[in-house]
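Consider the tokenized backbone below.
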């Protein structure tokens, strides 16, 4: 079995160092607005991921869970590259196939959908704050979002997962790799093997230019020359870092995240779950569509999450 700590070390060569505990200040969670909807309460929440920073997210709670001290399952829901950020998974705009926070809440989960840096209403200069990448700032913020969920009486801290599409799809894997409290990760159209990456169709295979801008990991260009063969880690390493916790992959056949590379990652990862004795904790679907999270695949993903979190 690959060494998870070695994988995290190599990821930090590209993303920058994971912050130390000095940044883990009280969350100071405040409800900025609240709406009562069919079967749920939707709260606009502000919280403090670290000193001098204030982030935002939609907290959705099934009405029958409000005030419960029994605790139940919860999902961190990460949005794709869209200007409205957290609003899309909460079902407040964007693509109807990506309202997974609203749909999971309807199934009984508490969900939290935070804005990724510089999306939605969250504006922050990650680099002035000392980060080497927006990806690492996202990892830190998503860990603090897990802190927020674990502090809610309606949530069982041992039954939390993460889901995302595209930008949210790889951020779900990054979050789960670094945070073992996340028991299941659902990644939709979130990755391909770096050797198959072609700058979203604008380059040749192995071209990681689309991963190198300030919204992701600038060191991919500065140190690794946007070349897959120079990178110290790849997505099979990230997936292996999550074993034996559960992973569901949606890798569509006509995505710009090349299907062949997704299949390679899946084929490398599946035996690791078999070796660990938990083959049922890894699944993948490959619908014949473009960059999307179709209803039938979402239903399978939700059933997978329900089975893992109970």
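A designed sequence for it:
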């Amino acid at each position: 079995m690959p060494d998870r700590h070695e994988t995290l070390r190599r990821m930090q060569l590209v993303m920058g160092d994971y912050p130390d505990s000095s940044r883990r200040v009280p969350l100071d969670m405040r409800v900025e607005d609240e709406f009562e909807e069919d079967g749920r309460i939707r709260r606009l929440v502000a919280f403090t991921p670290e000193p001098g920073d204030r982030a935002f997210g939609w907290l959705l709670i099934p009405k029958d869970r409000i005030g419960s001290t029994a605790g139940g399952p919860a999902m961190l829901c990460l949005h794709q590259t869209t200007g409205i950020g957290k609003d899309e998974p909460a079902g407040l705009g964007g693509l109807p196939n990506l309202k997974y926070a609203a749909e999971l809440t309807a199934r009984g989960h508490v969900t939290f959908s935070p804005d990724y840096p510089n999306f939605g209403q969250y504006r922050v200069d990650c680099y002035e704050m000392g980060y080497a990448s927006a990806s690492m700032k996202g990892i830190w913020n998503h860990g603090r979002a897990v802190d927020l969920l674990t502090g809610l009486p309606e949530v069982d801290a041992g039954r939390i997962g993460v889901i995302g599409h595209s930008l949210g799809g790889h951020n779900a894997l990054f979050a789960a790799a670094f945070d073992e409290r996340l028991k299941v990760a659902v990644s939709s159209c979130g990755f391909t093997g770096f050797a198959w990456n072609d700058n979203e169709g604008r380059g040749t295979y192995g071209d990681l230019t689309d991963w190198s801008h300030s919204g992701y990991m600038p060191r991919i260009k500065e140190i690794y020359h946007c070349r897959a063969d120079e990178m110290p880690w790849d997505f099979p390493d990230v997936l292996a870092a999550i074993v034996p916790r559960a992973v569901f992959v949606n890798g569509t056949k006509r995505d710009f995240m090349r299907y062949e590379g997704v299949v390679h990652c899946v084929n490398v990862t599946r035996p690791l779950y078999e070796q660990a004795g938990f083959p049922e904790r890894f699944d993948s679907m490959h619908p014949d569509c473009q960059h999307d999270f179709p209803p039938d695949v979402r239903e399978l993903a939700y059933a997978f999450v329900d089975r893992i979190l109970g």
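The first strand starts at residue 30 and ends at 37.
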